[in-house]
Amino acid sequence: MTGTPVSAAGRLVEINRCQICGSERASTRYEDPPYKVVRCDDCSMVWVSPRFDDEALREVYGEDYWQSDSPKTKGYSDYAKDADLYLKTFRRRHRLVRRYLPAGAARILDVGCAAGYFLRVMAEKGHDVRGVEVSDAIAARAVEHLGSDRVHIGTLDSVPDDKVGYGKGSFDLVTMWDVIEHVPDPKQLLLEAKEMLRPEGHLILETQNVDSRFATLLGLKWHHFKHQEHIFHFNPDTVRRVLDQAGFEVVKLTSSFGGKYVSFDFIAERAARLNRAASLALKPLTLLRGANVYLNFHDEMVVVARARA
Ligand SMILES: [Zn+2]
Fold first, then answer.
1. What pLDDT digit, counting tens, does each position of 1-54 carry?
2. Domain range annotation of the chain
3. How far away, in angstroms, is 232 Cα from ligand 1 center?
4. What is the whole-number distance in angstroms between the Cα of residue 1 and the centre of ligand 1?
5. What's the pTM value of the predicted model, to 2 decimals?
6. How far, in Å, CA of 285 to CA of 282, rounded?
7. DSSP conformational letter for 209
8. Among 54, 117, 133, 210, which is disulfide-ready with 139 (CB 3.0 to 4.6 Å)?
């Protein structure tokens, strides 16, 4: 399903220890050569081994990730073209996010802000927003809309200490939408996020739930098994555990608001991944091209956590 590009040969690393609990006892859940999806026998954390080494991981997010020829296995078919869908999705998520903001203008940091869609929605609501994005290919879009002073291109730990508006301990809210499953050290990223928050500030993250019914039903065909980029798969227990380790207390964990507005074309692409019959069944519906619909398979978790003082 997911071939390894020749250029990545020799750049795969075996991961034999659970990064959440340290256990070396893990069982193979799926084989998808050269990758295996393994599950920790002790804490149920799921990860991909071997995976790209850290340098190869960073190279995944070039132009061809955001405008991918094979979105089934990597990236998005056309992330920028779907701007309206992302803005609509984040306007819906704002209904959850606003419950955790102080009165008035809040200070919000979005880690992995991509084209800045979430931040654009929050700026519309009057909040003071900043973003961090490691992929310069897509960060350029965020800069276009928000300005270069509101977007740091790089990792969170590379934000210069003197960058205006990025002071440690100054944010009311840090968000990470579809980020934590991509990074080589989720706990470290959460620790860095906590440093950015004021005492008792909130973190909201979204990630896929590998133990959701939808994921279990689809097995290896689940669309979140993209081994080059999704190197971790959390469930409610493991996401709570890593948040606790990083100094957060979970106050809400829900699959509501985990859905997305998608285009008919996207549905057709997903159907093609499942099987040919499903794909053919959708053929007569091509009139729906251009239509969009809110889809929630309840296979994502939206987690709200409060920074412990
Ligand atoms: Zn473990």
1. 344 444 545 599 999 999 999 999 999 999 999 999 999 999 999 999 999 998
2. 54-307
3. 12
4. 27
5. 0.90
6. 5
7. B
8. 133
